[in-house]
Amino acid sequence: MQRLLTNHKNITATRLEDVAAVALGAGQARLKLESFALTANNVTYAASGFAIGYWKFFPTDVEGEGLVPVWGTAEVVESASDALAVGTRLYGFYPLAQELVIEPEADGHGGFVDAAAHRADLPAVYNRYTPVRAGDATQDHMRALLQPLLATSYLLFDWLMDNGCFGASNIIIGSASSKTGLGLCKYLAEPEKRAHKIIGMTSQRNKTFVEQLGACDQVLTYDQIADLPQVASVYVDMSGNAEVKCEVHSTLGAHLKHSSAVGISHWDQFNPQSDVEGVKPQFFFAPAQIAKRREEWGPGVLEKQITESWKRLAQDASSWLEVQVHEGIEQAQGVYASLADGSANPRHGHIIQL
Question: What's the CATH superfamily of 2-134+321-353?
Answer without folding.
Answer: Medium-chain alcohol dehydrogenases, catalytic domain (3.90.180.10)
